[in-house]
Amino acid sequence: MSGQKFQYDESGGTFFYFLLSFLVLLLIPGTYYLWPRRPKQDPGQLSKECGCEGCKKKKIILQMNEPWKETKALFTKFLIILGWVILLLLAYKVSQFDYEMANFDPFEILGVPPGSPQSEVKKAYRKLSLILHPDKETGNEKAFMKLTKAYQALTDDEAKKNWEKYGNPDGPGAMSFGIALPSWIVEKENSVWVLGLYALVFMVALPTVVGMWWYKSIRYSGDQVLLDTTQMYYYFFHKTPSMALRRVIMILAASFEFYKKHNPEIIERHSDNEEVPSLIKQLSNLGEKNKERPLCHLYSIKARALLHAHLLRIPLNPETLEKDRQYIVKKCPYFIQEMVTCVNQLIMLAYARRIQRLPSIETIENCMKLSPMIVQGLWEFKNPLLQLPHITEDNLKYFLAKKRQIKSLQQFAQLKGDERRQILRNLSDSQYNDVMKVLGNMPYIEFKVRSEVIDDENPTVYTAGAIVTVTVSLTRKDMRTLFGDNTVKEQTILDDSKAAAGDPSEEAAEEESQTVKKPAWLRQRKGPKKSNKKNTNKKSAPAKSGQQSQPGNVLQHQQQQQTNTPNSRKKEDGKESSNKDPARDSVKERLSDVSDSEVDSDRSDDEDSSHIKKDSAVDDDDTEWEKFQQRISKREKVLEGRSNLSHEVHSPLFPDVKQEYWWVYICDRKSHTLLTTPAHVTSLARFEEVQLRFTAPRWPGLYTFTVCLRSDSYIGFDQAQDIKLDVKEAPEIPTEHPQWDISDEETAEDVDAADDHSEFTTDEDISDNE
């Protein structure tokens, strides 16, 4: 290692290699991702765009939101092009270094052909030395030294051997390790500047950037919502399990993103002291006298007043309150999605008995209903036809004539062209064309539901405690496909008119929240009628063994399945009598004999049907293979990531581009409970499939659940379909598996826990209660 050298780059050659590789690593991905591209536009996009005044104003607002968009794009292009120019120059300079550092060739240096005699070599050396000698005017010391080495390599025997062996007439050179940085970095004259640069980058800039990132990350959730806002949502939704729509608006307006102390983007003006009180006088049921914090804070009251003005479509001062309205409304869809998540988690915590108050299904649905209201700037009790351009309250009387009674956009789309034009006869041709453009681009969703028990021998048979998979198929079409088509099947629209008509005030909502009762399937199951007193113990014992099923919780489903075994029922029958009952053993023996006979009968049935299974084995294999392929494709789609592009929403009062999103969930309308986590569908361009899973009730019977589809962008497009599950009793588990036996102590704990829990409400229970 004595011959090795380790030094900075004196000539600067290797430093250019470093710069070249660094620029390549930056420019290639930077050009691909950062080069400004214009979005692909449909050639007929202009013909599809609405020309109403609201859409024109929205275009101006979107352009004002990005005033430097074109300048930033030009600057980005300039930087990328400049980087590529520098890269080409560096590549040319490095290529020159490579040429100079090529293999030593004395014939080429002397300008003689290979194998020339020494006389010609000497003659060429004398001729070139007269030109390159340092004492001459045209001399070049570096080139002369190279010429001398070439002459020695062809004339001196030892130098010739070294050249042939090592490629250098001087023999093997010392190994050299260099740093790809110029030597002026370590020079004494530049030490102050170098240290200053290091201190600026590593002691000031880097800690500042990391600190800013960390401070922001600990304040915001994954959806870029302040954690303080999320905690506030949890508090109020837990405090008021059954929350009215107006109170949801109050909670939304109290988000800390609208508070200047938490968000420096908020602008507080002196004119607010006059404009906000005058706006409040125009609004009713605002609840400005509420004393709860932060609902009583000035920022919350201002945001609430702006949201009410937005829903009532009240014009505001374009220089002050209108700008505040646009900022608040633009943020609302993200906060509403966070509200839905918070209420859903509270419901799941109530199922798990972590909290006592169970939020009702109306609370989470009110949060969902608020989203299309904000996007369209319209109260839910208003006519959905007002979402069309140029349609005002005065035009509704033509829709609600005695002969027509057009109340939905779907009904209006199914009319013939002459009838639609007759209804809108007071509009000009251009205005009528705008109405038809917007109506034709609105969604028509084909909503199909299929339920099954996956990975089961008979997927259409639902047993107690089984995991039910509901596959929801959504096919999105344009409403223009319904123009003049009266044969389209009428969709089952969610009816929220009753809840909207009541519209309880804040005080009424609070009183209602205090009297919220547990749903029927969470209360203790009723015993049999008086006429069956003798069989009361036998029927109530298995009832106590069942615990509440949490939707989608497979682990708890397995635990519940263990508690529903024949052994557990045998031991619970024994628990109802004294522990020292002498008939206890005989009862166990009888029950075990019955279970054994049932198992034997099941085996005989399996043997009888074995030949049928063999005949259909090929078809079953094909079906299983198709299902397997579908699961693989779905997993790959999930791994690719969730897209946020579907179809642009016509929303002239919403100050940003909005895409169509949907919520899909399953609930029990009879007990007002949520069964599955709402799936947020954000990529419904044409077709989308959503799978929802929940645990079947623990009690055999006929149950009716509702699969709901809600839009977060349009009013009047919500749909619902009922699914009926005929739940059978779970098959008994063979007793020859001792690891599934449950001790008497565990069964006793399950019986005590079952006193506070029961199962879903069957149709028979509802009829009995009525």
UniProtKB/TrEMBL annotation:
Residues 523-537 have a biased composition (Basic residues). It holds the Pfam family DnaJ. Residues 504-513, 595-608, 742-753, 761-770 have a biased composition (Acidic residues). One of its GO terms (molecular function) is protein transmembrane transporter activity. Residues 546-555 have a biased composition (Polar residues). The chain crosses the membrane at residues 15-35, 74-92, 192-215. Keywords: Chaperone, Endoplasmic reticulum, Membrane, Protein transport, Transmembrane, Transmembrane helix, Transport. One of its GO terms (cellular component) is Sec62/Sec63 complex. Residues 105-167 form the J domain. Coiled coil: none annotated. This is Translocation protein SEC63 homolog.
